[in-house]
Write a structure and sequence with these properties.
EC number: 3.6.5.4
Function: Involved in targeting and insertion of nascent membrane proteins into the cytoplasmic membrane. Acts as a receptor for the complex formed by the signal recognition particle (SRP) and the ribosome-nascent chain (RNC).
Distance between the termini: 17 Å
Main location: membrane
Subunit structure: Part of the signal recognition particle protein translocation system, which is composed of SRP and FtsY.
Shape: elongated
Radius of gyration: 21 Å
Protein name: Signal recognition particle receptor FtsY
Structural class: alpha/beta
Length: about 325
């Protein structure tokens, strides 16, 4: 099928296949049990399929959409064999992800010819989701692409957050702007963006506090960080990247709900997919939030944060 034309390098695709192996194996095993002894896709098979999708963390809302699409195909084609079900499911999920993709998500890369410098990325997410690691891996990727990168340690509520970001700055060889623990996060963000302008940096990545305290406080804090950065670069931030832990399954949906309610999130990164069978959460999150999943974490290596490609993802998810 032309939708699944390979665009990844062989090495990246192998990493993706390996990272989604647990999710794929678990999902296909459940599918095999659901259709065991049955030759035709009927109501019983569809009921079992619905249970498989929900238990694979695709989410109830997205599962209902997928089942409805398959019901329409059954009605149209009159007879669908269970042997065809994997292929049909794969096509319908890829189609659903294509439809849910916003214009903003059509191109997950950054067009450096059109963006203003410095390109400001504000990273949000709760503690423990892999936020700092994602920032470090992004810094590495940008630098490898020949870009001048600067980090801003605006998560000042945990000394560990500043220390962790410093480790990544050292590891990737990029400068970091930081202050003492307890400093005003907005002040750090201001200094970081100002330094990026002075140093003619291409991109500045701002870490923010990972606390899910009450929504009003979170909203006020993130709004202040934005306002202060805009004193230096009026269009900042150009991107608000929400990092979610894929291994938490449905909890990732809740985090996405809270953060999208508190601030304008423009892109998502879903991490820790390699250590879990909950890869289906990417399908549900992509569909429900209408915010492009831009990166997925499929391993611990510095190269294992990949730009998300829905067709490659679905291909790996259904790999036998």
């Amino acid at each position: 099928m032309s939708l699944f034309k390979k665009i990844f390098s062989k090495e990246k695709k192998e990493t993706l296949d390996k990272g989604l192996e647990k999710s794929s194996t678990t999902f296909l095993s459940k599918m095999s049990k659901a259709v065991a002894g049955k030759s035709k896709v009927d109501d019983d098979v569809l009921d079992d399929l619905e249970e498989v999708l929900v238990s694979s963390d695709v989410g109830v809302t997205t599962t209902i959409k997928i089942i409805k699409r398959i019901e329409e195909r059954v009605a149209r084609d009159k007879y669908l064999g269970t042997a065809e079900l994997n292929g049909i499911l794969r096509e319908e999920i890829a189609g659903l992800l294509s439809e849910s993709e916003t214009e903003q998500g059509v191109n997950t890369g950054i067009d450096w010819n059109t963006v203003s410098k410095p390109y400001v990325i504000m990273v949000v997410g709760v503690n423990g989701v892999g936020k700092t690691t994602t920032i470090g891996k992004l810094a590495h990727q940008f630098k490898k692409d020949g870009k001048k990168v600067l980090l801003g340690a605006a998560d000042t509520f945990r000394a560990a957050a500043i220390d962790q970001l410093q480790i990544w700055a050292d590891r990737t060889g990029v400068p970091i702007v930081k202050q003492q623990m307890g400093s005003d996060p907005a002040s750090v963000a201001f200094d970081a963006v100002e330094s990026a302008v002075k140093q003619d940096a291409d991109v500045v990545i701002i870490d923010t506090a990972g606390r899910l305290h009450n929504k009003v406080n979170l909203m006020n804090e993130l709004s202040k960080v934005k306002r202060v950065m805009q004193k230096v670069v009026p269009s900042a931030p150009h991107e608000v990247l929400l990092v979610l832990d894929g291994s938490t399954g449905q909890n990732a949906f809740e985090q996405a709900k809270q953060f999208t309610a508190a601030t304008e999130v423009t892109s998502l990164a879903v991490t820790k997919l390699d250590g879990t069978a909950k890869g289906g959460v990417v399908i549900g999150i992509s569909d429900q939030f209408k915010i492009p999943v831009k990166y997925i974490g499929v391993g611990e290596g510095i190269e294992d944060l990949q730009v998300f490609n829905k067709f490659e993802f679905v291909d790996s998810f259904f790999k036998k």
